Amino acid sequence: MAAVLKPRQRDFPTGVLDRIGIGISAFCLLQCLALPLALFVAPIASVGVFSHAVFHLVLLAVILPVSLLAFGLGFMQHRNMRMWMPAGIGLALLVLAAVLEQNHVVGPGWIAMVTSLGGLGLITGHWLNLRCREG
Fold it and tell me: What digits encode the pLDDT tens for the residues 1-55?
């Protein structure tokens, strides 16, 4: 009797996109947490590309499509809704932080806090997406 071999489904787009999403979100979180510390330790550290509002918009322009694609592809595979809550909250907080920053509604400390919470939500969403695909 010949064994029937099931072709292994390539896991490239979703797994890679989730890992990229986690990496980008973690980088954003690190940057946001490091900036207040740098401002406290040395005010000159806040000068540069990492504290500029344009940098945050560029980062958001990368985060949004990568995350939405990863979550969409992952959901089509596993059909588990668990990841959408933290992912949606995370994306909404990142967009909110960008709007608040562009309109100078609140200070940099609040922007860093909202952005950090958004990054944590996205990291959680990507992690849940990976776990749902693996399980």
Answer: 455 555 455 555 668 888 898 888 888 778 777 766 665 655 444 455 555 677 7
Name the residue with tokens 């064994």: 3
Is residue 130 pLDDT above 70, yes or no?
yes
Rounded to whole angstroms, how far apart are CA atoms 33 and 70?
A: 25
Place of tokens 């922007």: 111
Q: Retrieve residue 133's tokens.
A: 């695909």
pLDDT digit string, tens, across residues 46-84: 455 555 677 788 889 999 999 999 999 999 999 999 999
Residue among 45, 89, 47 at smallest CA distance from 67: 89
Q: How far is CA 135 from each of CA 6, 32, 66, 78, 83, rounded to the nearest angstrom?
A: 18, 32, 22, 9, 14
10 CB neighbour count, 10 Å cutoff? 8
Q: Please give the Cα distance from 2 to 28 (Å, whole number).
A: 52
